[in-house]
Amino acid sequence: MDYQKILEDxxxxxxxxxxxxxxxxxxxxxxxxxxxxxxxxxxxxxGEIFTHKQADTRFSIQSITKVFTLAMCLSIKGEALWKRVGxxxxxxxFNSLVQLEVEKGIPRNPFIxxxxxxxxxxxxxxxxxxxxxxxxxxxxxCGNDEIDYNMEVALSEREKGYxxxxxxxxxxxxxxxxxxIERVLMFYFKMCSVEMSxxxxxxxxxxxxxxxxxxxxxxxxxxxxxKRLNAVMQTCGFYDEAGEFSYLVGLPGKSGVGGGIxxxxxxxxxxxxxxxxxxxxxxxxxxxxxxxxxxxxTEESIF
Length: 303
Ligand code: GLN
Prior knowledge:
- This protein has helices spanning 3-14, 28-31, 65-77, 98-102, 113-126, 130-142, 151-160, 162-173, 181-193, 198-206, 223-236, 242-248, 285-298, and strands at residues 39-44, 49-53, 59-60, 195-196, 214-216, 219-221, 253-255, 260-265, 269-274.
- By secondary structure, the protein is an alpha+beta fold.
């Protein structure tokens, strides 16, 4: 399969959409990013790497971080994790409060904000130094010790994070989080603020293709757990657009409001794409199109 040519063809085909959508501006630091950027990287399990455009530009991974958080929590808690958070698609926005109220503070899944805030609480309770542990895990996943939090982004999100603070307060009211709200929120915002490039994200996501034993920085997951983690990405990775992504792309994946998307083709490859302009559901317009064309041109998907 000539993935290099396919990435180049895809880019030409999606150019007409390059001005569609707009970047996230509810986090002031993200509003400063140039929206007219695009990068893509595909890495196969045999170690071949294909890139196009700005595959080495780092950006805010935002909710893609939730995959790493879930992997750590599953490694620590195993199946008991599902007592604290559900694994059903939410069908609502990533920051919805309504469902959380109706369902008495048990988040539908770990990939909406409420779910990830509960997972942040778990890591704070379980680990002596959660900030350092999280970074070591992500650094090990992509084999790069430069990966770091961007404190300007994290603090900017904290300053305007009224909705996430409301979610954390509701969780605390229902007894779903144990630690101090401020501590939990700041750790959550820090994990969202991590910056990585498409090349680094593709490398990190390769671990989720299940092609070799999963053990990074001491965190282990069995093949069966990785399978289940992919199932949650497939059904919950794109909030109220999870069905659409599944329909168009046919791979497990996860998006973030920084404009990044990762997707995994089990036992074959991982791919990361980035372009900051988002659709109304908070998913990258060009990123979604690029992945749709990738599985269409290659005629490869899990279905
Ligand atoms: N940090 C962002 C938030 O909590 C993450 C959301 C996202 O990427 N969908 O709003």
